């Protein structure tokens, strides 16, 4: 701390004279994407692990708040012990051109987690979320096409652009090797959460603590939730904004979008060496 600057005030309600254990550290792992892929589930599931401390909110440092500096970013982080890993998630990083370079400049050893989902389903989910906040927006079909009869998809619409995973990945591979990027299947996260979380724990280099015993399937929401743990009184399920019923879309529109995404999907599978079976 620079000379003369007073120490930060303790948080409200903390006992005077008692230092909280741990140190605020820059994250060693970041969930960088993608929006509506299942990033919140990954964060909530991984923070059950005793060796992980995660920031609950999205700091948007590497896209919107970079001008505030690394010390501001560090100040947001939870305190960790030497044996713990700090994790944050901001899904918009994956589609932010400057994010890979900025994260690399923070630490070239940062581990990156990308949660991907069938881009057609992801786009519909994205639209459904926006519609719940802005009911007056145009139809999904109207936003998707520049010219539907010619099958011209509007790639400037964010909901479409995000799903072009192979395009965005190129920016990341300029700075990080594939071995430092872990891809999570948003579909398998629902059908086999323990399996996907097992792979994430392996990637982070921590013991497989989160297993089948941590999950139950919530039929109402249509996805897995964390079972009640000894330390809490209630089972932990994601908020009401998760698991919304999707807007019904014309099957022909869906087929046109599948055709549009197919070459991007194939390139993505080939690049990461993993077939997500979105066809």
From TrEMBL:
This is Sulfotransferase. It is found in: Endomembrane system; Golgi apparatus membrane. The keyword tRNA-binding does not apply. 3'-phosphoadenylyl sulfate binds at residues 36-40, 117, 125, 242-246. It is a single-pass type II membrane protein. It comes from the Eukaryota. The lineage of its organism: Eukaryota, Metazoa, Chordata, Craniata, Vertebrata. GO terms for cellular component: Golgi membrane. Residues 1-13 have a biased composition (Pro residues). Its EC number is 2.8.2.-. Belongs to the sulfotransferase 1 family. GO terms for molecular function: [heparan sulfate]-glucosamine 3-sulfotransferase activity. The keyword Transferase applies. It comes from Chaetops frenatus. Residues 1-22 are annotated as: Disordered. It is an enzyme of class 2 (transferase). Disulfide bonds join 225-237. Keywords: Disulfide bond, Glycoprotein, Golgi apparatus, Membrane, Signal-anchor, Transferase, Transmembrane, Transmembrane helix. InterPro entries: NST/OST, P-loop_NTPase, Sulfotransferase_dom. Residues 27-262 form the Sulfotransferase domain. Pfam families: Sulfotransfer_1. The active site is at 36 (for sulfotransferase activity).
